[in-house]
Amino acid sequence: MSQISGYGLPSLNLGNTNFLDGGPIRPSPGFYFFQYFDSYYSNKFTDNNGNKLKGLNKPHFNYFAGATQLVYQTKDDFFLRAAGGVSFIVPYCISTHINKNDLGIIDRGKGLGNIQIGGYLQWKPININNRPLFVHRLEVDFMIPQNTKELKNIIYPAATFFYIDIYWAATLYLTEKLALSWRINYLNTFKDKINDQKIGNAIYTNYSLAYQTTEKLWLGINGYYLEQLQNNKFLGKVTPETKERTLGIGPGGVYFFSQDFVLFGHLYFESLTRNRPQGAKLAANIVIHF
User: Fold this and answer.
1) Are 8 and 1 in contact (CB under 8 A)?
2) Model pLDDT, residue 152
3) Which residues pair with 268 in a beta bridge?
4) What pLDDT sits at residue 193?
5) Which residue, 38, 113, 167, 272, has fewest beta-carbon neighbours within 10 Å?
6) Residues β-bridged to residue 290
């Protein structure tokens, strides 16, 4: 949808990872399995001013998507006194639908998203007074396009261009039971030769503040913020007023069945949106270490 008032950024990790991010306080080597699911609904497509996109009748849009991730972390310190790790993610759209509208925007239904391969450095937690204080991770991910078709007014689960995503994730334990977490991403996109366009680079962050209510349960507030830094280019020329933005915030939590089996849940409501849909998102994911 990049030729309609923006809408060009690929599917990103907006709120799919949040609470206690940056690494477990009891880091263990070996394999980690992650399974993500998220459901999204919007009845408002916005323009550059955050208003409803003109000429768009009944813009009800929803999708249900998932992603499967496998991670391996080394046993010994790898570099800069941190453990090394590799990550492989396969995202997929299970179902998607948009009502018939006056601008002719359609969806391509279910399918694979952009396969992601990455590497990271995981530092050991810093402790103070026999409790965790700070833990963090730095990762670089490479996205492999799964779509080779021309896109025009189409909502598609995969992009047609290559991009790199760099992030720093961390948790600061303000007290023994109160934790502030963030994941700050920088998205660097490359030219889409199929559609002769270049989507602007972007920054986005996930954030949360959680309180440990029981030995196994953390509850709190979580959210995300996205800001596109540059306008898109089409046919070598800048397309003005195509920068995307959105803010999501809502409740969530994490439950530890054990240190090796963890369940996360997130609910978000969007605002301050421009050049993209504005709606609500429900996400959940599990982490298993083996």
Assistant:
1) yes
2) 57
3) 281
4) 82
5) 272
6) none
Cβ neighbours of residue 198 under 8 Å, at least 6 residues apart? Answer: 189, 190, 191, 192, 232, 233
Q: Which residue has the tokens 């799964």?
A: 146
Q: Tokens representing 190?
A: 């490359």
How far, in Å, CA of 8 to CA of 114, rounded?
14
Token pair for residue 156? 């598609």
* Cα gap 96→94, rounded to integer Å: 7
Closest to 272 measured CA to CA, from 50, 43, 60: 50
Backbone φ/ψ region at 45: left (φ over 0), alpha (ψ -120 to 50), beta = beta
pTM: 0.92
pLDDT along the chain (290 residues), means of 10: 60 95 85 96 92 77 94 86 94 87 72 90 93 96 75 62 95 97 97 87 98 98 98 92 96 96 98 95 96
Residues in Cβ contact with 54 at an 8 Å cutoff, skipping those fewer than 6 apart = 47
Structural domains in the chain, sorted by start: 30-289 (2.40.160.40)
